[in-house]
Amino acid sequence: MVSHSRAPIVRLTGAKPSISVQRCTGAETRLPASAPAGDPARVSIRHIDPCDDAAFGAWFAAYDAAQKHDQPGGPWWLERESRVLHESTDYLDVVLWVAEDQPHVVGAASLDMPLKDNLRLATVQIAVRPDRRRRGIGTALLRAIEKEAAEQG
Questions:
Q1: Within 10 A of 74 (CB to CB), how many other CB atoms are there?
Q2: For the whole model, what pTM was predicted?
Q3: Distance in angstroms (rounded) separating the CA atoms of residues 37 and 31
Q4: Span 53-78, pLDDT tens digits
Q5: Judging by beta carbons within 10 Å of its beta carbon (0-12, 13-18, 19+), is residue 101 exposed, middle or buried?
Q6: Structural element, H or E, at residue 140
Q7: Which residue, 5, 26, 60, 139, has most beta carbons within 10 Å?
Q8: What is the DSSP letter of 73?
Q9: Which residues have C-beta within 8 Å of that of residue 96, sequence separation ≥ 6?
Q10: Rg of the chain, C-alpha, whole Å
Q11: For residue 153, what pLDDT band results from cuts at 50, 70 and 90?
Q12: Helix, strand or coil for residue 42?
């Protein structure tokens, strides 16, 4: 049996019902461009299409590295299990982001928003590779999640 740690709950105000929509690559956010080239602060945040095998694989690699560092004894999700868990349904809209410091994915995030009940709640997961932590990457991912949650109502 595989167990999974509980993710933080974000309370949304003014939540409204919506329909599940497959999201593809989209908006991109950049952290300060004033940072020198190669600096961890030069990271872009973007949506990924969960149906894109390469994008999801890179998302999972960052998520997995963080999980194995934070929970060294496991248990951990396999990529194929995580793909199913992070799939939008008629009951749950899932949005995924990556934080990229070209060409590497250094962080991963997900926002799960219920569509039928508990519309004021959302589940958030943020993971940053252990060697890239304490540089604002997780905060940038959280800002992208907060913006999406506010736009969804």
A1: 10
A2: 0.74
A3: 12
A4: 999 999 999 999 999 999 999 899 99
A5: buried
A6: helix 137-152
A7: 60
A8: T
A9: 23, 47, 48, 50, 56, 59, 86, 108, 109, 110
A10: 15
A11: confident
A12: coil
